[in-house]
Amino acid sequence: MKLIVAGATGYVAGEVIRQAVWMPEITTIVALARRPVELDRPESSKIESVIIKDYGEYLDQVKKALAGSDACIWAVAVTPTKSKLMDVADVKRVCHDYTIAGLQAMYEAGPAKPFRFLYMSGYMSQRDPSKKPFLLGDYAVMRGNVENHVMAFAKNHDGIEACVAKPGLMARAGSAYNFILKSTGVVPIASVEEVSRAILKQVVSGFEKEVLENSDFARLGA
């Protein structure tokens, strides 16, 4: 399997790559990012670091690297916390425009069939604007709108399968932060290791459902 990991230098994507190199089913990992992915591990020979200056524009050499891929884990986004410090248009461009541009570019590059696209969203996203939450409501609806567009793209393009992962807060398993968050019970939480294992199993074996939530990560990532 040839797997694209978009946003490869990020927190979740880094753990996904760390686990993916040990999976015999995955033979090539296209690490798509704005800067090189560190290749200083002996098992990293299956990683192909692909630099992209702008996630909204895909040059021919980038599309060539994406061609023939079996799946993508898309982890390019702005977190809720960072979104409060950025212009609304910039947040939408990163979360929405880049995602759709990336999916279109992968389709144009000629992926395998089926091609599984897993979009990393968040637990607070809301697809129904009438149910906009009080806190970060516009952000939540915007992320839900991205999910709608991803699912519509898959429906309208032959061979494309899509899934949305909606984790809550994430921390390293066994860390004090993980323990504190779980003990409060205020927001859903799963370890980044569980989430990564779960989504990797899904892109390798096939999506069992359209939306994956924390209960799914605990079950699939055990």
UniProtKB/TrEMBL annotation:
Cited SUPFAM superfamilies: NAD(P)-binding Rossmann-fold domains
Regions annotated as coiled coil: none
Boundaries of every NAD(P)-binding domain copy: 7-147
Gene3D superfamilies the UniProt entry points to: NAD(P)-binding Rossmann-like Domain
Protein name from the UniProt record: NAD(P)-binding domain-containing protein
Organism for this UniProt entry: Chaetomidium leptoderma
